[in-house]
Design brief:
399 residues, alpha/beta, Rossmann fold, eight-stranded mixed sheet, three-stranded antiparallel sheet, binds magnesium ion
């Protein structure tokens, strides 16, 4: 293996020099900043295992300069060999030109992706104009790309648009599963989990309020386990005082077994959990604790209908594999379309139990049905015909 040393004012010039003189097969053994520029040590020819071993970083790159000097037959000098054991800054990633090139490559990549998806969409539109039109409508309704494509693929292209639309909406409705009023019909121990601020406590109050109207306030109890947020316990206690429902505040879910035992005589006990960011490990930990409790607790995920699809996906991913009974969809009155939340529950195969559309306790709550959810999706689409940009539809088509 033949070793050579190169010196240039900057890394770009040094690499250009190396490339011109030694071609593409050259191996860069080391690089470092020196007075007035950069120094590269290169090798060409049959690989020399011992030499390569010396230059392979092993938990630190400090040895390279000395070894480089030794191999090149140059006595190390104070100027060429740093005395401190700190390694020279790697030049590859910090050099401005390289960073600039990375940025430009990134821009070219996304431009190419965009053009390819545009071409694919155009080609699809030519081949299956009916399906393309349906896919455009579904995207405008906020239906996630994967679900939209799978629905459109199930419709024959020769159908006229109105018939095809009916077919696709029926297929969408068939994929929504709902539980018919499980909490108010059957009671039990119900826990409500979800991201922060989605309406868990309000939903707990609505369910407890509704149950007490039918069975009496003595038959229901509320448990607040949220000691994270200021005033969280207070929120439920105030409601409980107003309607005569017992409210117990706990410091954590670990205190649940005792409290649930105490509420043995209640037909319905609702556990209001603190809100968590999906990435917070406490989210899964809390749900795992609930799943391991001696008395059965049915946990429902609360999803806010005005949350975008990617954020909903994160929440659903965070609870993957944990035993969830179903979900409740909140703030339908604030959503522009139900497309994202319906796509998320379909992808996660989560049955929907209740929907809420307003802050009034206990009025603004409904039993979810696939028909009602689909009708609402269509109503919202008509009331606010979202004009999804062409580029968005093209991207959705290939993602
Ligand atoms: N418009 C509308 N607002 C709602 C609905 N449900 C709840 N809210 C409001 O959303 C806000 C947050 O509700 P909470 O019930 O405190 O939410 P939470 O999930 O318990 O919040 P954290 O405990 O902080 O995670 C309150 O102002 C509620 O009145 C709904 O269906 N529609
Ligand atoms: Mg709350």
């Amino acid at each position: 293996m033949k070793v050579r040393r190169y010196f240039a004012a900057n890394m770009r010039n040094a690499l250009e020099q190396v490339r011109q003189e030694q071609g593409p097969d050259v191996i860069i053994l080391s690089n470092r900043k020196v007075d007035g520029g950069v120094e590269l040590l290169t090798a060409i020819g049959e690989p020399d295992a011992e030499l390569l071993e010396k230059f392979t970083p092993r938990g630190g790159r400090e040895r390279a300069p000395e070894v480089a000097a030794e191999v090149a037959g140059v006595a190390p000098t104070a100027a060429s060999v740093p005395t401190a054991p700190t390694a020279p800054e790697p030049l590859w990633t910090s050099q401005e030109t390289v960073v600039q090139m990375q940025r430009e490559l990134g821009a070219i990549k996304s431009l190419l992706e965009q053009q390819l998806s545009g071409l694919a969409w155009h080609e699809f539109g030519q081949r299956s104009p009916g399906q393309a039109r349906l896919l455009r409508v579904l995207t405008q309704l906020g239906i996630a790309p994967k679900l939209g494509r799978s629905l459109a693929a199930g419709v024959e292209d020769r159908h006229e648009f109105a018939a095809a639309s009916r077919q696709i909406l029926a297929a969408l409705q068939a994929r929504i599963t709902c539980l018919h009023d499980p909490v108010l019909q059957h009671g039990g121990h119900i826990a409500l989990c979800g991201a922060t601020g989605v309406g868990k406590t309000t939903l707990a109050s609505k369910l407890a309020g509704r149950y007490s109207l039918v069975h009496g306030s003595q038959r229901v109890a509320l448990i607040s386990t949220d000691d994270q947020r200021l005033g969280a316990h207070q929120q439920l206690r105030t409601f409980g005082r107003l309607v005569g429902i017992t409210v117990r505040s706990l410091r954590s879910v670990d205190e649940l077994p005792e409290t649930l035992h105490e509420f043995e005589d209640r037909g319905l006990v609702i556990i209001d959990l603190p809100g968590f960011a999906p990435a917070d490990p406490a989210f899964r930990r809390t749900l795992t604790t609930l799943a391991g409790l001696p008395s059965m607790v049915q946990t429902y995920l609360t999803l806010c209908a005005s949350t975008d699809y990617m954020a909903l996906e994160r929440v659903v991913d965070a609870v993957e594999g944990l035993p969830l009974e179903g979900c409740c969809l909140t703030k339908l009155d604030e959503a522009a379309t139900l497309g994202p939340v319906l796509s998320a529950v379909i992808a996660a195969q989560l049955p929907v139990a209740y929907t809420t559309a307003g802050q009034q306790v206990p009025d603004d709550i409904s039993i979810a049905t696939p028909q009602a959810l689909l009708q609402q999706l269509i109503r919202m689409g008509k009331a606010c015909p979202a004009s999804a940009e062409a580029a968005l539809i093209e991207r959705a088509f290939t993602r």
